[in-house]
## 1
Amino acid sequence: MTIAIVGCGITGCVIAREYAEKGEQVIVFDRRNHIGGNLYDYVDEHGINVHQYGPHIFHTNSEKVWNFVNKYGKWQDFSLICGAVIDGVCVPTAFDFTTIDTFFAKEKAEIIKSKLLSKYKNQTTATVLELLECDDADIREYAEFLYEKDYKPYTAKQWGISPEKIDKSIFKRVPVRIGYKKAYFDDKYQAMPQGGYTEFLRNILDHKNITVQLNVDVINILSINDDQISLKNYPEVNTIFYTGALDELFGYRFGHLPYRSLRFDWKYEDQESFQDMPVVAYPQAEGYTRITEYKKLPNQNVKGTTYAVEYPLPVSDNDDVEPYYPVLTDDSQKAFSQYRELASTIKNLVCCGRLADFKYYNIDQAIENALNVLEGK
């Protein structure tokens, strides 16, 4: 039995290793010239480890996921602190009480903080949507400030559509803290792989039963006949795990699924620090959404600093850009359901991963999803 996996991102790597451990032969294909998908990182010409496709921070509460990643690399504790520049002032995100102190008069700030602690006394965070729907006028005023100054303009730039049309789950990704705490995540485990993500993924793929073939666009050698999918020149393959976009797999039969991509403007400065925090959002800036200073992700003892300015852009089948984020709207999810139903009719095809599931996954979610898919096989 030979397993073919289309896509060498974290999902494909996990599936490959799990099958290899069971004694199965595995071939992993990727159209790019490197392993790791969007987790790929490398050391640039200035000696700084950078993430080619944007910052990735590992965090999880899952013991299963934590145990899995520790089999393939050593991890160092790392608690991420992010910021957002609002009206020219950088405040921590998730938005804690520092934001209230910064933008509201002292007396008003004390009222808002007191009411938040009373209203949400059993919570450490709340979503901006919860606060916007609160029956207290002062809490709503704070929520409306955050929404108009950060969530709304950032969302409009990031997704390229009106915030009213996007799935509301997007607004839950950046919480509002009930109290003072600068850390972005609350997970039990927060860490970065020593040696980088590429080394971690290379360790996962380091097995005698795994073969990796890069620079191969599998779409060109795939064929679907009735309820079977096959790979030209690979008759030994009897099961295919597909982690790419479903609309591309099926020739855009039900139209294009909307994705957003990113363009990175890479810069190097001969200075010790460019910004106070590793990742800073700029909701009110023209065109770009955030800047990541990789020297601080995690802290690296090197001269100078490398950072990347991120510009969101749309994806079409004519663009030579990588799809990053599915644009979740009512229409897009209806179209995806059609593709998913079609995929389910092919007996030897398994679709999973960020693109194939048309869903945003954090690293730990992608790993757990892959392990769960395998448990269901």
## 2
Amino acid sequence: MLKSSFSNKYVEAGCDEAGRGCLAGPVVASAVILPMGFKHELLNDSKQLSKRQRDSLRIEIEARAIAWSVASVSEVEIDDINILNASFLAMHRAVESLSTLPELLLIDGNRFNPYPSIPHECIVKGDAKYYAIAAASVLAKTHRDELMARYAMEHPQYGWGKNAGYPTVAHRDAIRQFGVTQYHRKTFKLLPEQLDLFQEAKPKK
């Protein structure tokens, strides 16, 4: 059973990210402030929900939240600062974009770079424990999937509309056949054998 709040004393924002383990595309984070006492029968960790459920919840969360925001860190930035720091930066950008200033951040996971002037609590598997983090999980996931579907229209051979950039067998087979795109994370191990993938500026048609 998810909890409505960590403490009744503060305005809390749940924070989570999506796309950390992907081979392509940005990492996307969301910050969500829900009304006090918010409850929902369906809302849970986005990974436990179907796409239809996530899409439906996204509409409801965006309508009912006191404030919500979504922010990203590009694949170029990920290669520059590493994926862990990029995940934290995406959360910082999401918090910074909130229309209401939170007094406490609830972070999914066990590590975080502190946000200036706002205390935080790291909660392992927090997206299955607190509604605000679960809501952030849903928004981050749905917004990122939508973005990767748009990228898939540019590069349909990688199947991003289905795999969202994650390292599926089909995605890696496409990398072997077509090379990499501007959206691939060059510092990631794109293939187990890590071929010299970066000689071509564009993938083969």
## 3
Amino acid sequence: MKNDQVTGRVIKGIGGFYYVHDETDRIFECRAKGIFRSKKQKPLVGDRVVIDVISKEQKTGNLVEILPRSMELIRPACANVDQAIVIFAARDPDPNYILLDKFLIMMNRLELPVILCFNKVDLISDEEMERLRHIYQNACRLHFISIHEEKGLSELEKCLEGRTSVLAGPSGAGKSSFLNYFCPDSEAETGAVSEKIGRGRHTTRHAELFYVRENTYLMDTPGFSSMDLMGLDYRELRYYYPEFDEHEGSCRFQGCVHVPEPDCSVKAAVERGEISRERYDSYCYLYEELKAGRKNF
């Protein structure tokens, strides 16, 4: 690599500029070379890139190479994400199980490992926490946290180490507090970028990457706010409920979808309490909505 070149991660792209965080914690404002247009390539937030430095003092450069991607998402447009952190409030507001399951299904469709975090556990009893645990313990990795009281965060921090994690969840769940806790300089970094482009953080609809520590990033994006499952065949929905997996092939009828059929192994597991009633009821609701072809349910 040339002396005037550095490698880094694209943390934001807006208005034709790409902001690249390098290994020494600098943020360079860059333009992308025209060669990317001719190759029909576009830099994405999360890309590992090489830039030609124009000015170290003004932190400007040209983006000249996109390094190979480990993965790429279309909506939201980003690259090199290792896992999803889905954040829901345990109370205030109460969790919407249908919406939560739609988040989990979407991440499963994207083949992203999921860590489900129930925030604000300081507002619920131990019994209520155990009920949430019973519902989701076989669906994904589960953490109970209180950002306000800093409970459960040190254990969760170990899961973030060395990974790029994308945040997802509804408004009011605590995503901003989560980001501010693990990236206390995030507002300052955003302010510096916003000052250059003349926009505030909340006026953009683009993904943004925040540096936590070496090889550890959090990605904030509004791209998961629309939980539209259209395009998913209702007969395939069962494959996105991991707790159903061990019962596949055990039902009386081949290709059982676990809703109308008798002698269904999944329904028997629900009756025995091995699969939570809330998850199964959610499955049935989403199944019927997908079957009816309703949009944006």
